[in-house]
DNA sequence: ATAACATATGAACATTCAAACAGATGAGGA
DNA sequence: TCCTCATCTGTTTGAATGTTCATATGTTAT
């Protein structure tokens, strides 16, 4: 169940203690995982990238990604919950956009990373 | 199956075309999703954060996270596949570290984001 | 009010995934 | 060689996730 120490050098113990002291809270790690999980899906990655180009209504997203409105809507719900997108209603339509520049930066960093290592 | 356009304004069509033209390839989106998926797990987020503080051997990670060595090893396998960590062998031990500063930056951005919105 | 449309939601199904356990590999010491 | 230790790898099981279909909500126009 719980990990046991390997043959313990003082270096080993020192590192373990130091890292343990600096670890974030469970709550923060849960948020962090949830944030990245929201990016970590083919469909949502495409939605987020599309929105990084321009604000779009649900049906426009469905058209761009060639997917059903329902599928898009379900994913948008998750993205809303993760606070990655915001929306405004205009008549029958609902327009989605990225929540802030942090989200745009994360997408950008991600793209840079995958392009650097082929 | 495939999405249909909503009542089509010229604005709508213009946006759809523009976004479609700028979308990345399927391959790139798959990579992008895979990258973020690797971050998007409670255990892996903790591993990556721990490694952002200091290089650690598998048993040290198991100790820090209070998990079995096996569980850690399985996750490290995924992180290796995603090219997020590198490792060096030293006798019986295997020491893991973040692959590059891109990874560190992504973690940092993520933490900034969750801290900004409470 | 009724119809048509845009979006959201619920339930069912299929797939993916992490944790746990057992066994395998490989390095070092007696 | 035999044994131990650190790590890795299969396999199974239960949970989480994505997609689809059907339906519900809410808006606009007739």
At a glance:
The structure is a homodimer of 118-residue chains. Chain A has 118 residues and is mainly alpha-helical.
Question: Can you tell me about this structure?
Answer:
The structure is a homodimer of 118-residue chains. Chain A has six helices and three strands; from the N terminus they run H-H-H-E-H-H-E-E-H. Chain A is mainly α and 118 residues long. A three-stranded antiparallel beta sheet of chain A has the order 1-3-2. In chain A, strand 2 (85-90) and strand 3 (93-98) form a beta hairpin. In chain A, helix 4 packs across helix 5. Chain A starts with 9 loop residues before the first helix and ends with a helix. The model of chain A has no long low-confidence stretch (mean pLDDT 90). At the A-B interface, helix 1, helix 2, helix 3, strand 1 and helix 4 of A face helix 1, helix 2, helix 3, strand 1 and helix 4 of B. Chain A binds a DNA duplex (30 and 30 nucleotides) through residues 1, 6-7, 41, 43, 57-59, 67-78, 89, 91-94.
């Amino acid at each position: 169940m719980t990990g046991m120490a390997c043959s313990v050098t003082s270096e080993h113990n020192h590192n373990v203690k130091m890292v343990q002291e600096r670890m974030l809270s469970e709550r923060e790690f849960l948020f962090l995982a949830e944030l990245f999980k929201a990016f970590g899906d083919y469909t949502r990655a495409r939605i987020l990238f599309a929105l990084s180009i321009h604000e779009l209504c649900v049906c426009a997203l469905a058209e761009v990604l060639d997917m059903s409105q329902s599928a898009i809507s379900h994913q948008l719900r998750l993205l809303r919950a993760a606070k990655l997108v915001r929306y405004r209603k205009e008549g029958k339509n609902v327009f989605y956009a990225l929540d802030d520049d942090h989200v745009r930066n994360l997408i950008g960093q991600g793209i840079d990373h995958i392009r650097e290592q082929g």
